Amino acid sequence: MTRLTTEIWVAAYLTRLRLATIPAFILQKGDHTAGAVLVKLNTLDGNACCFQRSFDLMTGERNWVVLSEGAEQDVDASIAKQKSFDPDLWVIEIEDKSGRHLLDDPSLSN
């Protein structure tokens, strides 16, 4: 199965969020073809959660898992650490009090 480039996936994801009236912003652009993506969910109450894509070797499926959650400053520190390891990383921030992120939507799988 052919996978979408990261740039195209990010554009589609941002469009889905916009259509659901969920504010989202690109904090860092990474490699357009194969950069990894982190999604920070800011619930606007001082807390946040950061998701990363995980690959299950047993099933071959890709799932979103929590990389870090808690106080926003701690989540930001975790993201900064990841950015220091991977200059090709994309970082998207979502701002939603209800905690919506659409990462569980099967139409966004890649």
Q: Give the biggest sheet.
A: 5 strands, mixed
Shape: globular
Strand order across the biggest sheet? 1-5-2-3-4
Oligomer: single chain
What is the strand content? 25-35%
* Spans where pLDDT lies below 50 across 5 or more residues: none
**Which class in CATH terms?**
Alpha Beta
Sketch the topology as an H/E string, one letter per element: HEEEEHE
| Share of residues in helices | 25-40%
Structure, briefly:
The protein is of the alpha+beta class. The chain is globular, with a radius of gyration of 13 Å. The chain has helices spanning 6-19, 72-85, and strands at residues 24-28, 37-42, 47-55, 62-71, 90-95.
Tags for this model:
hypothetical protein tt1805; single chain; 2 helices; 110 residues; 5-stranded mixed sheet; alpha+beta
SSE blueprint and pairings:
Layout: H1 6-19, E1 24-28, E2 37-42, E3 47-55, E4 62-71, H2 72-85, E5 90-95
Parallel strand pairs: 2-5
Antiparallel strand pairs: 1-5, 2-3, 3-4
What this model shows, in words?
The chain is α+β, with helices and mostly antiparallel strands and 110 residues long. The chain has one domain (6-98): Protein of unknown function (DUF1491) (hypothetical protein tt1805, 3-Layer(aba) Sandwich), CATH 3.40.1530. The protein is built from 2 helices and 5 strands, in the order αββββαβ. The chain has a 5-stranded mixed beta sheet. A hairpin with a 4-residue loop joins β2 (37-42) and β3. The protein is globular, with a radius of gyration of 13 Å.
